[in-house]
Design a protein that fits this description.
The protein is an alpha+beta fold and 246 residues long. The protein contains 5 helices and 11 strands, in the order βββαααβββββββααβ.
Length: 246
């Protein structure tokens, strides 16, 4: 069974409650998800939370083609959108915003452990990141291995019925073989870009990742922002460490 730890921090000048991302995991079931709410959309933080919670509670069957993922997103969106429109009835502008919908990037994985490691399957949308590392080496990076490969208009999962597919067609299927001691990271875009920049500079964060704790993570975020390596944005990182062979 893997060891999973989640870390997060709001923007430098923001209050904790302004963090609009979400992360959730279940060590026993080996399921992990991270979502990054688009701050310009209605109830972005609530939509992010709904996505990761539903992924843990009722994860879709993940396979190439992601047909079940499309159905899962539509199901989650239908329930969320109905509740959002009910909440927004008190003002015309909130009602209009709720009809346009809520949006978020997303990454989620499920692990299947075996005697000599195992495998993972996952889905990624937009610029939420999945890194699979083995020692100092980066085995897999989704959506990119390039720290400059992020832009301001990522693909998003949306709650609104105006988007028939809810953005699920942008989902990328991921899978990989996991060896004992491998570590996977699920991150939001700012942290993902910073991690790739550090790796390109020969200072991969996964070299010291096992020593991360909540206080050390916040210190690291502050140091990276001060050094202009990390953008001043909300950040989330979930670390999934598989067991070493005895």
């Amino acid at each position: 069974m893997p060891t999973i730890r989640a870390f997060w921090a709001p923007k430098a000048a923001a209050h904790e409650r302004e963090w609009e991302y979400a992360a959730a995991y279940d060590e026993a079931r080996q399921v992990v998800a991270v979502a990054d709410g688009a701050s310009s959309s209605y109830r972005a933080g609530v939509w992010s939370s709904r996505l990761v919670e539903e992924f843990l509670d009722q994860p879709p069957q993940l396979a190439p083609g992601l047909i079940a993922f499309h159905e899962w997103v539509a199901h989650v969106a239908d329930g969320f959108q109905s509740a959002s429109e009910a909440v927004s009835e008190t003002s015309w502008y909130a009602s209009d915003a709720s009809r346009r919908g809520s949006f978020a990037t997303f990454v989620g994985i499920m692990l299947m452990s075996g005697a000599n490691g195992g495998r993972f399957v996952g889905v990624q949308v937009g610029d939420a990141c999945l890194f699979h590392t083995r020692g100092d080496q980066l085995v897999t990076a989704v959506p990119t291995r390039d720290a400059e490969g992020f832009d301001s208009t990522p693909d998003l999962l949306g709650s609104s019925a105006y988007q028939e597919s809810h953005g699920a067609e942008a989902g990328v299927y991921c899978e990989g073989i996991v060896e004992p001691g491998d570590v996977l990271y699920l991150t939001t875009d700012a942290m993902g870009s910073a991690m790739l920049a550090l790796a390109e500079a020969g200072q991969p964060i996964w070299r010291a990742g096992q020593d991360l704790g909540p206080r050390r993570f916040r210190t690291m975020v502050h140091e990276l922002r001060t050094a202009d390596v990390l953008e001043d944005d909300d950040v989330t990182l979930v670390r999934v460490e598989t067991k070493e062979s005895p």
